[in-house]
User: Which sequence fits this backbone?
C-alpha cells in the first residue's frame, strides 16, 4: 500500500470547528507542515510532533518538504487554514505530487471562512454565491475586477477573501467601487474578523458604508444579493421558502 | 440569559467530517429536528434524544417546531446536511426567529458538499468559484441560467448542487448546454456521488461528456475553470503558485 500525505483543512482556528477526522489525523501523525502562522496555532494542541514551516512565497518548497518527509516513511500532514482546497494547498500538493508517484495525496476538507464567517454573521450565503479573493499576488487584478463585476450582475451573494493587507490597504475600496457600478449603494454587506479566535467581531454595513471602512487581512467580507436583509442585527439571505 | 436554538451543519453524513462543536452540541441537546432523511442518519449515533421531522416543503413548519420546543426550555438543534447556511436552514430560522425574540439563534457551520466533494475529486475549487443550485423549486429557472452563464464568463470554477431529481432528470444537460455556449467542450469537469457515505464515487469528464451523463440527486458536480486539469485521475485547479 502506498504511503499517504494528508492535506488537512484545520478550519478557522478554534479547535471546535475542526472536523473530527482532521483532529484524529493530527493526533496520529509524525510531522505537521504548514505556513508558520498556522503551524504555531497547533504546537500546543498537538505536542510531541515534528513541526516544519516555510514562510509565504515558499509554497512549492513546503510541498516538496512534505513529500520528502513522507518518502522517509513518516506520516505527514500539510495543514491549511480553513479548507484544504479553497485558496489552500491541495492543488499545489497534487501538482507536485506528480513527481512523487510512490506517495498518495489524501485531502481532508475543513470549514472555510465563507462558512465560519457566514455563521457568525447569520446566514449570508443561503442561496447561490461566489467566492473571490482580492489578492493579486497570483492573479491579475483585471481578472479579479471582471469576476466581481460578473458576480454582481449574476446577483450572487459574494464572499471576499483577502480584502486587504499592508501592501494594498485600499483593495476593498477598489472592489466596492466596481460593485457599485452594478449594485445599489444600500445593498446589505457584512464583515467578520478573527473568526473563531479572540477578538471575533461581526459588523453589518451598506455597500456604500463598506467602501469607506478599513478592514484588515483577518477580515472576511460578505456582499448580499438582491434579497439579503438585516434581521435583528444578523445578515440574512433568504432561500425563498417564504416568498 | 436567552435560551438558544442551534442550527447545525452536520457535514456530508460521515461522522468524521462533522466538526467537533456540532458533535458536542448533538450529544448535549434534548431535541433534534430536521428533514426526515438527515435525522434518520443521527438516530443511532445520538440515542435517547427526542427526534422531530418534517418532510420537504414543510420547512417553515419545521422552524416553528424548533422555536416552540425551545420555548418549553429544551435545548433544541435544527440539523442541516452539509453547512447550516449553504442551501440550509439558518436563513429561514433567522427569519422566523423574528417572531420569537426570547430565543437566540446560534449557527454552527459544517462542511458543505463543495468542500467535501472537492476533497474527494482532488482540488477543483482552489481558486475563485461559484456555487449554483439547479433546483427551481424556489428559484426561477431563468435566474439559474443567467447565473451559470455569467459564472462561466467570469472563469469561475463552478460547483453545482441539486443537478437532478426524479421530476427533472434533464436539468444537468440543460445546464451544460448553457455552459457550452461559453466554455469549450473539453473543459475538465467532475462529479462525486454519495460523498462520505457508502457508494462514494468520483468521476472526471469533459464538459461535453458530462452533458450526456445521467447523474442523480446525490451527485455534486464541478466545472473547472480555464486552468483546471486532470493529474493522475484527480481534478486540479491551480492557485497559480507554479505559473
Assistant:
Amino acid at each position: 500500500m502506498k504511503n499517504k500525505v494528508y492535506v488537512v483543512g484545520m478550519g478557522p482556528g478554534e479547535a471546535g470547528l475542526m472536523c473530527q477526522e482532521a483532529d484524529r489525523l493530527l493526533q496520529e501523525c509524525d510531522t505537521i507542515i504548514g505556513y508558520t502562522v498556522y503551524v504555531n496555532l497547533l504546537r500546543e494542541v498537538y505536542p510531541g510532533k515534528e513541526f516544519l514551516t516555510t514562510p509565504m512565497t515558499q509554497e512549492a518548497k513546503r510541498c516538496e518538504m512534505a513529500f520528502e518527509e513522507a518518502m522517509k516513511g513518516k506520516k505527514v500532514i500539510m495543514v491549511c487554514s480553513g479548507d484544504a482546497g479553497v485558496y489552500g494547498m491541495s492543488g499545489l500538493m497534487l501538482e507536485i505530487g506528480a513527481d512523487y508517484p510512490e506517495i498518495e495525496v489524501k485531502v481532508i476538507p475543513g470549514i472555510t471562512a465563507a462558512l465560519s464567517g457566514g455563521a457568525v454573521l447569520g446566514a449570508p450565503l443561503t442561496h447561490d454565491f461566489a467566492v473571490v479573493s482580492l489578492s493579486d499576488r497570483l492573479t491579475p487584478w483585471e481578472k479579479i475586477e471582471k469576476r466581481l463585476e460578473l458576480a454582481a450582475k449574476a446577483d450572487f451573494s459574494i464572499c471576499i477573501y483577502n480584502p486587504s493587507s499592508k501592501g494594498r490597504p485600499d483593495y476593498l475600496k477598489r472592489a466596492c467601487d466596481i460593485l457599485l457600478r452594478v449594485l445599489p449603494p444600500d445593498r446589505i454587506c457584512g464583515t467578520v474578523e478573527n473568526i473563531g479566535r479572540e477578538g471575533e467581531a461581526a459588523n453589518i454595513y451598506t455597500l456604500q458604508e463598506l467602501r469607506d471602512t478599513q478592514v484588515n487581512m483577518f477580515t472576511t467580507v460578505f456582499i448580499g444579493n438582491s434579497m439579503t436583509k438585516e434581521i435583528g442585527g444578523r445578515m440574512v439571505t433568504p432561500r425563498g421558502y417564504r416568498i
Summary: Chain A has a mean pLDDT of 95.
